[in-house]
Amino acid sequence: MQDILKKLHPLEIAVLRNLKEKTTLQELVKNSDLKEVEVMRAIEWLHNKKLLDFSKVAKKVITLDKNGTIYLEKGLPEKRFLEALKSEKELSKEEIMKLAHLNEQEFNVSLGLLKKKLAVDILPGFKFKITKNGKLLLEKGLVEQNFLDKFKENKQVSIDELSPEDKLAYDSLRKRKDILKVIELKDWLITVAKETLKLKDELKKYNFADKLTQEMLKDGSWKDVSFRHFDVKVNVPKKYSGRIHFTNEAIDYIKRIWLDLGFREMTGNLIQSVFWDLDSLFVPQDHPARDMQDTFYLDDKYKAEIDKKILERVKSVHENGSDTGSKGWQHPFDTELSKKLILRTHTTVLSARTIATLKESDIPAKFFAVSKIFRNETWDWKHLFEFYQVEGIVVDPNANFINLRGYLIQFYKKMGYDNIRLRPAYFPYTEPSVEIEVYVPERDTWLELGGAGIFRPEVTKTLIGKEIPVLAWGLGFARIIVPYFNIKDVREIYKNDLQMLRNIKRFIKF
User: Fold this and answer.
1) pLDDT in tens, 48-96
2) pTM of this prediction?
3) Residue 404: in which H helix or E strand, if any?
4) Considering the domain 247-503 in this protein, what is its CATH number?
């Protein structure tokens, strides 16, 4: 038992001294002369040591409102009304108001209440006289005034502890303006076992100290002191330090993968022209993806300026294939549509703009981007209208499909996926085209995580000036990371739930 006592903090000792078999937090605060937060802390520590139990409770208490505070000092208006009449004189309304210090409203309320109690008689000439019942009420005290007087000693009175008489007084007073108000207090109910109460008695035998002082050494009093032991095994509240949002951790990690593989990062504006976002990538101008249902268009009054030379080359390849060996889309090209502004629908627009600036001396080259894109999608558990995409291109005369497959396998392995497969697909700007799928053991399913391929000559020869292999991929960032975090709903990625952000695991390297 002494070993337990020696491990107690001074706050725990102070609370232990004031414990009863059942008590409340507020009673301990009052009796221990500690602050509420100190008592709360001590209770939690004692609970961790299994020395007590506590539960959080709420109770309603009655306190005085502004008029109640005035009437506690001066007396209720009806009491003052009766006291003005106790001399048995017949008094007029004006005389009573003057003697009792009542205003018109207080007089009328008091008269109504006293008439119900048969405490006053109304005489001819509109004069008033106290009755025998009124004298008896003054002698015994009005129940409402007796109830109000309880607040001289206590600022609060619990509703649950009212006597039947007090309940009647409370019901009467709460109907009146600004006399009483009810508030809900949150408290803790502490229950203590008999073994803990024995510890309380043991405290009297010891003189505990937190530290050895100079005075103790000088006067030798340290010999009679029991020094507190520090309990290094006690449960303490978990501390949450600041940390990067888990999505930003994942983004930083993905960027590191591509940088380590010798890639350079591409950046660009969120707002792009239809020309760069779609036309330059050989997406037909009547493609369904261009519809307002999939794309966020800016107001028509805003237009982009497009270099006439490159605009003509893209126009030509769309209409007849130009010199790429293609027939194009055999459809008139609308240059005004090209000038419209949109929120970019994919990060491939960055790839198009990047390869259009490359010179002969820049090749071979490798670029990547982890950036936001926008789609006019219905927001649900697997779709967002604003999300990140992982983009990459390799511009190299010697590049081939085997290299593309190698880059993708290398990336996904670093993201924790060992089982990867590529399936044939179709995209307007790549040929061959594939969809990347990974096996997720936790869900026992294959998950599609992005698209890839080799840019068509209609893209590369038009933008670079000559036909050259360009490996390209666009991968779904959210879909890549949700299995790792065991997230079932992609909307949770951007949910500002503090508890989730504190407890979610860190994105560590594989």
Assistant:
1) 888 889 888 888 888 999 998 899 899 999 899 999 888 778 899 898 8
2) 0.59
3) helix 401-414
4) 3.30.930.10
